[in-house]
Request: fold
Amino acid sequence: MPSPTQTLEFQAETRQLLQLVIHSIYSNKDIFLRELISNASDALDKLRLESLTDTGLDADTSDLHIVLEVDAQARTLTVRDNGIGMTREDVVDLIGTIAKSGTAGLLAKIKEAKDAEAAQSLIGQFGVGFYSAFMVADKVTLRTRRAGTEQGTAWESDGEGTYTIAEAEGLPVGTSVTLHLKPADSEDGLGDYLAAWKIRQIVKQYSDFIRWPIRMATEAAGTTGDTETGVGEDSESAAEDTAPRELETLNSMKALWARPRSEVSEAEYHEFYQQISHDWQAPAETIHMRAEGTFEYEALLFVPAHAPFDLFSRDSKRGVQLYVKRVFIMDDCDALMPNYLRFVKGVVDAHDLSLNVSREILQHDRQITAVRRRLVKKVLGALKGVQSNRAETYAELWEQFGRVLKEGLLEDRDNTDALLELVSSASTHDPEKPTTLREYVARMKDGQDTIYYLTGETRAMVENSPHMEAFTAKGYEVLILTDPVDEVWTDQVPAFDGHRFQSIAKGQVDLDEADGDGDDEAKAEKAQREQDFAALIAWLQNNLSDHVKQVRLSTRLTTSAACLVGDAHDLTPTLEKMYRAMGQELPPVKRILELNPTHPLITALRRAHETNADDPALTDTAELVHGSALLAEGGDLPDPARFTRLLTDRLTLGL
Ligand code: ADP
Ligand code: MG
Reply:
């Protein structure tokens, strides 16, 4: 004889939580289905496990599954599983209370939280799970029978303060949760959860990779309409109903990442990649890993063969999705992949997170940080592998993603060395072929201890810059860096393999010394030159003080008369331009004018200055020398019209 229905009160904390859920912490109500399916899936896992370990258990595990049933007339949606089920005590303990410690304190905090977003991030710390049903239902009925027991239990609540519990006869093993849906237009954002298309869509989005089939009872072919019609009074046991219904499986169940690597074919990886990336081309590299221990997760990551069109747009998304035990949690999981690896696509399935985990919480979770560190190492290692073994593929990858990877040199100090190993750069060594830094270092001349580079807007500008002259003449290799990010990382990364990076357009260079030619004779010669030019230099410095901060003799020029250089920490002209383009106010960056003491123009200028320091033509010449140096490196003249006039006058005189 069934015992009479008992009415029980929810535990105080549970009641508070229910109020919060009902009054909608979540803007996205669709997730109630994800929660119920995840519970059903857990219950199926548990039954299978128990049937394996407890041979005495008399349970049918031949067709473990989840069924979704709609009764449009009664406005109910039922989630049914033939999993482990619950005893009456289980129901009271698990559904009637929140067993998790610290809940009360947390709830107090949630109440203090000013806005929904803050509340949501707090609530992510524990699972709302089953209660999310009350976001969409004004009454929930649960019927369940524990495997290995005879007595079934029915539980019902409107989510207010109490629930009823009663014995129920004739239930199959497993659990069914029936939601009596609120009217569709009762609240904003309440979807039409009776519509088959809507259910299909939610399952596809959140539960596609659940390992058990999720079936939906739809009307047999021949009948029409998207919404299911009722199946009579006994709608709660529709599965046993004889109405012509077909069971459609909604989920693919193919969570490749959960399978051992050895059992997944290349074609399957590609198909999966295509599905998550919508990229028709096969990925350049696949990374499949599993971590066991205190924090278990699986990761299946892909390096695409080509960059998406929005790689550099401000709101370009990160490509890694987060799952928790095969339940989709979020796209674009920034906690798992740094910005500079935003092109990596894939899935991370973490086993020990709450389904309600928020971005906020992930950002501060120590274990997630550890996962991210490991994934980054894996990706960088995989790229290194491509570089070593598939040079051609690597060249293309670098072409596509090199600029983004170099952002890592600014963002990720922990992996500077690994990133520098990946850098591929144009170089004066071989105009046809880029070089790695390691190759550069191997070719360095005796006595050379720094890595020379020059940045600029285009390759031609860099290659033809006057700064290159002495380096080319003396056979020093110079890296040609033309990505905007190069302007920045070269300043911030201290060294590669113990060798500093040195811009050939910055600071003093003394190639003679580097060459080992700095003997006494050369030194004396140099001192003499300094003396010879001292008066001209002082005069020029004074004359050009609006444009340059210093004038000095150069050791880097062979054929040009003059060039402009910066101090070690000065902004480069390209960087200055970039900042101005972004709207930043900057004081004018003055540079250093270097003169080639062997150039006929400079020696003639010196003589003219010695002869008559007050000749007005000298001032014009000084301006022309400065302007030409600016033009030679691709810079912009402060007053192009004036420069052209001075030059035209000079040319006319010379004819
Ligand atoms: P969580 O899943 O995070 O534990 P829930 O609120 O979703 O929290 O569920 C609470 C508990 O109720 C579950 O841990 C489980 O023990 C039990 N439960 C919920 N749904 C089912 C189900 N369909 N079958 C068996 N047990 C269930
Ligand atoms: Mg749950």
